Amino acid sequence: MSVDAALAWVDDRHDQLLARFSELLRIPSVSTDPAFAADVQRCADWLVGDLQRIGFANCQAIATAGHPVVYGEWLKAGPNAPTILVYAHYDVQPVEPLELWETPPFEPRLHEGRLYARGSIDDKCGAFANLIAFEALLETSGTLPVNIKVVFEGEEETGSPAMEPFVRKHKDLLAADLMLICDGGSEPDQPLMFYTARGIIGAEVKVTGPSHDLHSGLVGGAVQNPIHVVSTIIAALHDQTGRIQIPGFYADVQTPSATEQGLMAAQEQEFFEMLKSQTGRDTFWANELGSLVARTTALPTCDVNGVWGGYQGAGTKTIIPAEAGFKVTMRLVADQDPHAILEAFSQFAQSFASETAEVIVTKGPASYPVNLLYDGPVIEALQAAFEATWGKPATLYRQGGSVPIMGMFQRELGMNLATLGFGTGENGHAPNEYLLVDEFFRGVATAIHFYTNMGQQAA
Amino acid sequence: MSVDAALAWVDDRHDQLLARFSELLRIPSVSTDPAFAADVQRCADWLVGDLQRIGFANCQAIATAGHPVVYGEWLKAGPNAPTILVYAHYDVQPVEPLELWETPPFEPRLHEGRLYARGSIDDKCGAFANLIAFEALLETSGTLPVNIKVVFEGEEETGSPAMEPFVRKHKDLLAADLMLICDGGSEPDQPLMFYTARGIIGAEVKVTGPSHDLHSGLVGGAVQNPIHVVSTIIAALHDQTGRIQIPGFYADVQTPSATEQGLMAAQEQEFFEMLKSQTGRDTFWANELGSLVARTTALPTCDVNGVWGGYQGAGTKTIIPAEAGFKVTMRLVADQDPHAILEAFSQFAQSFASETAEVIVTKGPASYPVNLLYDGPVIEALQAAFEATWGKPATLYRQGGSVPIMGMFQRELGMNLATLGFGTGENGHAPNEYLLVDEFFRGVATAIHFYTNMGQQAA
């Protein structure tokens, strides 16, 4: 069987593969600091070279307005086999504070089953695990079970400013049946697969009143207080149940499917425990709107993240301030359009303006929610792969946070998405980042199974 | 006529009187700085000595928990004549920043009709003008037309912490028919007399939510946001017309008399112009509640002076903060009880507490509103005095700000109050404080007329 041969090929070469992985980890591809631009390019070139070495075609580091995107393809599985677009990113976070690293971040160190290095879990593992899987399959059976296109990003840690124009320009090149996002990880004894993330929009609101701070004893009662206006806007955002009051806010919110409801119910108790430990409380807010999981992942939210105005020092200062303001972010779910909601919020806030107080809204970033696959053949192929390697399926979970780039991929490329993460370990974005090596190779085996399962579905 | 003789006595001695006033101004009686405590005592002793010199009895610097109170009395006008308790304060503000003074603050300098010195308008003039008036009347007619008690405070600039216990302890000593507050001034060509001041209460409110700041993307929708609670409390303080919504808030608010209404109407246009220049706007707030003068002087107000919570820096930080808060002050009018209103506010704010958010109210200072005389014999005697010296009556005005000590005097001593200010000039509490010398002597003449008028009313 081709899977067994490929798995054995990997098993026979752990040390060599880790040595080659270490080559990749030694390149300080810090995308956020322009001083490392040449290293980012060198990292892209290394990956292009490795794709060529294992037999991929059309390998190139495609220039963008930012850092290069690594592309390569292997399309000889035939027209009946699906084409999978495999995403990972090869850039890494800065290493500061350097003094907290026990060994240098770009000198990989293997210790007690952990591979310490910057980028080991976030996310060079995502690129390299796939390279191993592809090479193992090609070396042992001369072919891949599916068509593969890889796209390895070089600026994920900077917020991916160049990726949207890149994707728009290269839609034909990136066309595929499925996009597999390989960024993230699992718990050591439990594989995880997230299948939804919320969009996010942000705005800053400033309310201006008198031309300068005034004595509240002398003019209070005649001069509208910007703090009161700010508070009135914020208070009007929710009703008493916690439901958001911006007109049209919920119009495009999709109700989770029965399958999703089941997945959500299975997460509820764990989520309650998590919230309890995070908040120091065992009662929560807005209970009428839905379960904890629903409220934090399947429903949109609106939170003021900061408010200010007037005097904040010790004691009393009897002023009516000239202005006050707040920052707000909202998490959106499919099919809410972030630009439309941002505009609706802006109009809502501005409806509180008057002859005595201006309301100025500065719109911030707007990113789309994303719904990935949670059932169907692709998920079956993934779960079978997890069963074969972990002895159990991955827990499908929803996340309340946002992964802006996935929403962009989904919207621009119009294809299904699924996730497969290889970065099980600790300290991503922190000193002493490390990868659990056994889990990593278990992930490689999962990938080999998954691609094989996908090929068999097509056969 | 005794008035003419007294006025002539003063006119003949301008230079000598200013020289003696300069002795008083040279004493750096800065009450806020303990380093000047001996100077404050020396200033009190100087006043006691001067009261004795001009023929007052029972002169003493009475020790208090703070700085001494200067007392003296002249009670030989007979039982039919009224007794007037004359208040001024002899302590002064600090002089910093010293480098902005053109000449040293405690070296009085006469220049172009201005007497420059710290304390020249606030409020050594109030004490010394009365001393001149008393001396002139005593020297020219051997008597005063009314009985006089003087009480010169030594800690007004520190908020008068020791005065309430002092007054409570010395009620018999201070008993009188009228208290004349000699602290303040006029415009150069228009005498002013304020007849009401609002009380003030303050509080700080803190709302606590989760035990620490949380990621709003991960827990938003389940964790109540303290900023939202703070905003809901603030927004609930007023209805859309600007009327305050704290239960019972207006229960004890007195409607101004017809006379007051007339006085207020006369102030309205001037007040509009003042507000226009202060705010940079020509439209105002809460117009339905009353005139501008009514809203800022005859009605209570509630202003949040500061609000804070969460992230206030640049860009976005997606948190639900552990807490948020605000500072509020309210201006009260007769007969609102500051302690009762503060308690009503506290209960109102706490009614927004829930299982997911505590509301903690810290009560601040509470002072009573004060209503002084605005008509009747005393005001007639004052206005006749102004007519005789300025050629026109004083403008009776209401002030929106607070003079906590007056409310205390009124409440503790249970007597009528009126104001007569001598401090016409500029830069009280600021560098280069100066008194307009001609206006000061016009005030001395007004006092001579007033005391004489009061004596004639009794005769």
TrEMBL record, chains A, B:
Protein name: Peptidase M20 dimerisation domain-containing protein
UniProt record, GO biological process: proteolysis
InterPro entries linked: Cyt/Met_Dipeptidase, Peptidase_M20, Peptidase_M20_dimer
SUPFAM superfamilies xrefs: Zn-dependent exopeptidases (SSF53187)
One term of GO molecular function: metal ion binding
Residue stretches making up the Peptidase M20 dimerisation domain: 196-353
Gene3D superfamilies: 3.30.70.360, Zn peptidases
